[in-house]
Amino acid sequence: RKKLTIRDIMKMKNNKKIVAITSYDYPTAKIADEAGVDIILIGDSLGMVILGYPSTLQVGMSEMLIHTKAVCNANPKALVVSDMPFMSYEYSKEKAILNSSKFLRLGADAIKLEGGSEYKEVIKNIVNSGIPVMGHIGLTPQKYKQIGGYRLIGKNYQEAKDLLDDAIQLEDSGIFSLVIEYTAYEVAKRITEKISIPTICIGSGPYCDGQIMVINDILGMGDYSPEFAKRYVDLKSIIRNAISNYKSEVENGKFPEKYWGMKDEDKKKFENS
Ligand code: KIV
Ligand code: NA
């Protein structure tokens, strides 16, 4: 298949459901791409699911850049999007442009940042620099302390209305697509009908232009997953079984079965040395 561009993704609205998944390294990016996903996101969720940090607040540019490089080394045909980590875009427009440019230099196709209409100017500046931006509203994990935890957003009229207004403002700022995380489904549905760019949802119901999931959640790699995640395989048990089989085989001498020896004459010489 051919390399996907933001135009291809935008054209999927009303045509085909957009399939997005996170990846953080070379082998899983390759597998996700072989499976034919449309978008690979190097999410700052990597802080929690890969690096063992307590939240995404601990993730900085250095981690995001290393993992972006690893994913880009797989040369995905999928659109590659990198998350802007906490405090990489909030406090200065120069910093926001500079940091987002680093991802494109490594091979990413776009960046994603969390936030509503308060980031309109920041987004406009990045987009005007030639860097495609994906928005992210609803539950924005970088603001979990302010939000009051990882809770469902938009259950009441005011929150729902604010989300709709944010979506409209963000579209106006030039984003090419919008992630809507863990909102009441009616909110995601209304936004999807109202804006002309694709919505990509996680935990916000089926009435969106696409879905995104954290790869570790669908593979069953973690001890904890959010309620909206679906496990398609219990990879954790599969991996544990493989490692414990290896352990018993080493302990009982069954492994290794294959090994290689010296040339006969040299072997004799060596045995007498
Ligand atoms: O960091 C991440 O994985 C994300 C997705 C859940 C949208 O932002
Ligand atoms: Na994220």
Automatic annotation (TrEMBL):
InterPro entries: Pantoate_hydroxy_MeTrfase (IPR003700), Pyrv/PenolPyrv_kinase-like_dom (IPR015813), Pyrv_kinase-like_dom_sf (IPR040442). 3-methyl-2-oxobutanoate binds at residues 44-45, 83, 112. Pfam families: Pantoate_transf (PF02548). One of its GO terms (molecular function) is magnesium ion binding. It is found in: Cytoplasm. Binds 1 Mg(2+) ion per subunit. GO terms for cellular component: cytoplasm. Its EC number is 2.1.2.11. The active site is at residue 181. It comes from the Archaea. Keywords: Coenzyme A biosynthesis, Cytoplasm, Magnesium, Metal-binding, Methyltransferase, Transferase. Coiled coil: none annotated. GO terms for biological process: coenzyme A biosynthetic process; methylation; pantothenate biosynthetic process. HAMAP family: PanB. Homodecamer; pentamer of dimers. Catalyzes the reversible reaction in which hydroxymethyl group from 5,10-methylenetetrahydrofolate is transferred onto alpha-ketoisovalerate to form ketopantoate. Belongs to the PanB family. This is 3-methyl-2-oxobutanoate hydroxymethyltransferase. It comes from Caldisphaera lagunensis (strain DSM 15908 / JCM 11604 / ANMR 0165 / IC-154). The gene is panB.
